[in-house]
Each structure stands twice: as structure tokens, then as C-alpha cells.
Sequence to fold (227 residues):
Amino acid sequence: MDIEFIDLKECILADNEGDAQEVRDLLKEKKVVLWNIMSSPGSGKTTFIIDVIRRFASKPMVNGKCLRFGVIEADIESTVDAEKMHALGVPTIQLRTGGGCHLDAAMVMEALKKMPLDELDVLIVENVGNLVCPAEFDIGATLATMLLSIPEGDDKCIKYPLMFTVTKAVIVTKMDVKDFFDFNLETLEKNTRRLNNDLRIFPVSVKTGDGMETVMEWLNNQITSNL
Ligand SMILES: Nc1nc2c(ncn2[C@@H]2O[C@H](COP(=O)(O)OP(=O)(O)O)[C@@H](O)[C@H]2O)c(=O)[nH]1
Ligand SMILES: [Mg+2]
Fold:
């Protein structure tokens, strides 16, 4: 008798595709942009998200209103980041993956059921800190971006290529410490071009504010064109 095997990864990913479509359909109906933010732990996701939400809060759109944000925090454990978002006054849901290294679309759908979608324009997902698994799972996002911090090095797109192909932009964080590291932006750009010719690269420092206005302009276009 032949040994049967089940390719679990394929099954999981196939199910996930259907779930991701359901997330997309619901958010299209509700006119909410789902923005997936991925990176290694500690690259500055929470810090960047807080800064972006604050900047958008003082940036009225053409109709005089500001974009309304919600946040889904995904962590293996703890509510540290969710507490920071909650303190900003934005609707926040903490998803605890209980050891899982990524979010999938079904988990996001659970969070959507608890979010006041009719009162939101943008729902930010701070994905689990990891450059591998989150890239494999479509969560139904309208916009996917990643952060890469200066201390991580400019070779990460060679080591984790998938992440750099599923994102629209790499936000290079902690530019204020670049003099202490051998990070070369041109090397990063050259290596990412081979993987994803449309990828945008935005060097920023949330500490000094450098580069933030440029990335805000791009984000504003990405969000408003998808609303
Ligand atoms: N020097 C510097 N540190 C930063 C910057 N952004 C974030 N950090 C620091 O990096 C650490 C990790 O940031 P955090 O936002 O928690 O990263 P996350 O794990 O990706 O959410 C914290 O100590 C932040 O203060 C920055 O632009 N410059
Ligand atoms: Mg965080």
C-alpha cells in the first residue's frame, strides 16, 4: 500500500485564499482600507504607526474630515502594543496568536467582527514580528508595506526575498543611527530591483521626523485612491 500524504501547507494556504477574499469583500463593502505592516521584531512598527496616526489626525482631507483609523495588533503574547494604540484613542483589537508566527485571514475576520467598521477608513494591522511567515499569508489587505531598520542590515532582501515581493514599499527606519552601521541604501535598492521593480523605498527616522512627510504623501495617495 502506498503511503498517503497530505500537503498541509498547500491546504492551509488554499483555505486562506478563500478567507482572504471574504475579508476583501467585506472591507470593500464597508469602504475600509486594510493596511498590513510587516517587519522583524523591534524594527519600529509600533513607533511608526503611532507617528503616522498622529500626523493624519492633523491632516484634513478635501472634505475637511480626517481619516479615521483602527488598529489590529498581532502578537504571540502580551498586550503592550495594543495598550499604546488604545491610549491614542483609536479602536484597537489585540490578536494573540499563542505562539503562531503570523496572522491568517480567518484571524483577521474574527477581529473585523469586533471592529466598528462603519466608523473607520483605515484599519492598520501590525503583523507578528517576523520576516518569513507573514509574507506567505494573504490576509485580505488592500495595502502591504514592510519596515526594515538600519541595524538589521541592507542584505535582508537576499535572505528573505518573499517579503520584499509581497510589499509595495520598504520603509527604512532608524535613519538617525545610520552612521553607526554599514547599511547602504544603494545596495538595498539594487538588490530589491531584481525582486520587485515597482517597490518603493522610503528612508525615515521617526525620532527626527526626517523622511516622514514624503512617506505620508505616498500613504495618503495609496489610502485615498483605495477608499
Ligand atoms: N533611534 C531610533 N529608534 C527608533 C526609531 N523608531 C523606533 N525606535 C526604537 O526601536 C525600538 C523598537 O520599536 P517598536 O516600535 O517597539 O518596534 P516593533 O517591535 O517593530 O513594534 C524602540 O526602542 C523604539 O523607541 C527611530 O526612528 N529611531
Ligand atoms: Mg510592536
About this structure: The domain at 8-224 is CATH 3.40.50.300 (Rossmann fold).
